[in-house]
Amino acid sequence: MSQLRIAIQKSGRLQEDSLKLLKESGLQFSNGRDQLKAQVGNLPIELLFLRDDDIPQYVEDRVADIGIVGEKRVG
Length: 75
Description:
Distance between the termini: 45 Å
CATH superfamily: Periplasmic binding protein-like II
Shape: globular
Largest sheet: 4 strands, mixed
Number of helices: 2
Number of domains: 1
Strand content: 15-25%
Structural class: alpha/beta
Number of strands: 4
CATH class: Alpha Beta
């Protein structure tokens, strides 16, 4: 069985809310502090903790299947 790879920010304004969303969705994993990736214990899912600017490229290159990103604030 293949696993889903989800890319989220390793730090920044969306990281905490992204982790909360995933945990409230029933995913069981370690918090991601000082890790580059974490395996979800109850489903075939791997979380990738990346710089926010790198997430779109990882999805485009198919290293990650989906990514959680926000709108870039200017100013």
